[in-house]
């Protein structure tokens, strides 16, 4: 039976000719493969050229269909269309050469086409490819049904476990009781004395009596005074620091056993002091507290982790205080020791983290295959051969430093997540994954053209490591929802791992289940001591202000390029690493090509270095060259200042000075996984522009708390900025409105206090889940991942060294 022709179902008859004409137009562009942005820009162009009415592009059936097409492939005379009919769900269509027949094809078939088409030598049906499929392991875990709930796994799991507690009290109630009975910190028994309370029934009657008794005490009575009485009943410390809090915690637990509501489990479990030792893995190194900016891969991740560690420690200190126990929390950031580390401290085995009491950086060297310590910095793309040994060394060091196992292992970025996975396996410790940036979405076509890119990027190792850690980790936190499942019209970063092919290596037909409750959105915050509104003048330092006022706009200095003819014009400011993806040169070009922008604004750039000989990174050197070319080509002298990167502690004041001059912050990246600078600038009160590609599209509410730009082309970017700047003339208050809304947005959604509360709740809830869930599925997944690690990833990584 031939497959059904779906064209009439998808495109109404009245628009079928437009659809056909547009596809014909696309085939005429000569592209083999188009992604969403190009498809959409071509569509807008086609509509203009064909005099379509203004709303046709967006509102016609063809427009609505195309808005949901992330990829089109043009093999021979047919067209393959990936249609994302709702978030994270797809149909794939094959359109016949006459564009009249549209038939569904399977994911396997689609990947075969891609293989065959991209690699001319691959046979059309690439049945030889290794097929990776993680879907069968999904059967062992509950799955979220509604895509709107993706990223809020904690609520789902709460509901699931609470209803189990209610419906199967004999199993789940016992599990919860056992979970509490085994609870110890640093060898000290907490909550329940297992010798006194050895059955669930005894425990529940003791709980009821104690709740009643506690009601007779002053609620502020300290725990110490109640200790003997509680102990005699079988209750150990950890319930609270006062009679009132102990009673509250016990009542929450009591309600869980008798009339559980979904929030009770999270409320109760988040009070249980379970975590005191946290290991944070970030192996690729160049991780320190000063002078580490400038390497291509030491940006936001370092800042994020240092702020995170401070927030986690502060949270644990407060938690132990409220629980009425005397425990010192410990957080260790484990990274690579680099003997040749310039003016940084990356060659020191240990470094205390400023602003904490007991957190420190622990550095462990990489060893090569001959057993010698690797002396120099190694790019994150080339560190794969060292990680297996590094993980083993970490295990030993962590056991020694913590005098036992950690309670939580947090991985960062692909390398840290892989090491966290290996450690979590060996030590049987709960694992949290944080991607920061999944390079697969950053580097377009990096799966299809992996072979060409392998020499520099080694994506075969990186994407395999990503698959392993995302599938194995207990929970994954992301900074935005779009990082997981994208937006109505754009791919999510994790979503891009659902199915893809790396021709000649493998085809992934189900790489990750986005509907697994392990996914949780937990956005980071900003360091509120450094980043505060420009209006809080009492907090600002006059001398720092004076210094940066001159440095930004007028100082003649050997490390600054350019001058401003009219320094009073509002500055467009940008600050980032000078690598390709940050697209600083795209902004310079946009500014240069737009006469009105040039007339009304100045451009101030803080990025990299102006001296090419000071850069040891090829990508950065290219960008430096391009900066000079653009400044000359667009005659920008008198309109631009280009400064080297700014040290972290100074960046807050820099944003504020720009805000004093009614300036704006522009983050022009081609793709930004999250974008800490966007948060920082908004928090300081700068109207902020960010790309529609990636995290900023979720941080900024377009037109309200900032503006989103299509950064793929300089003219589109310039137009977007000009729309706002030109609006000042009509509405002089506009700048203030956007500034206010931006600050409010960050205050509301992005704070480290909220972050740490959520992270610990997740750890505890998923800890309980790990304890109760059926291990059968996990064992099978472990075996599958073991094979992939030992037979595919490890040999590839080892081969890199030679
Ligand atoms: N940063 C800085 N000085 C600079 C450029 C950047 O201190 O000259 C900091 C910036 O304040 C932010 C981080 O580096 O905290 C960059 O993080 P983001 O998430 O924006 O990008 P990433 O570099 O991680 O891709
Ligand atoms: C890495 C990135 O590329 C940024 O987009 C993030 O903001 C940063 O890490 C912190 O998560």
From TrEMBL:
EC top class named in words: transferase
Keyword Iron: no
Top-level taxon of origin: Bacteria
Keyword terms: Glycosyltransferase, Transferase
Gene3D superfamilies, per the entry: 1.20.120.1230, 3.10.450.330, Glycogen Phosphorylase B
Molecular functions (GO terms): sucrose synthase activity
GO biological process terms, semicolon-separated: sucrose metabolic process
EC number: 2.4.1.13
Domain Sucrose synthase first GT-B: 264-546
InterPro entries found in the cross-reference section: Glyco_trans_1, Sucrose_synth_GT-B1, Sucrose_synthase_pln/cyn, SUS_EPBD
Name under which the protein is recorded: Sucrose synthase
Record-annotated Sucrose synthase EPBD domain positions: 152-241
Domain Glycosyl transferase family: 565-727
Catalytic activity: an NDP-alpha-D-glucose + D-fructose = a ribonucleoside 5'-diphosphate + sucrose + H(+)
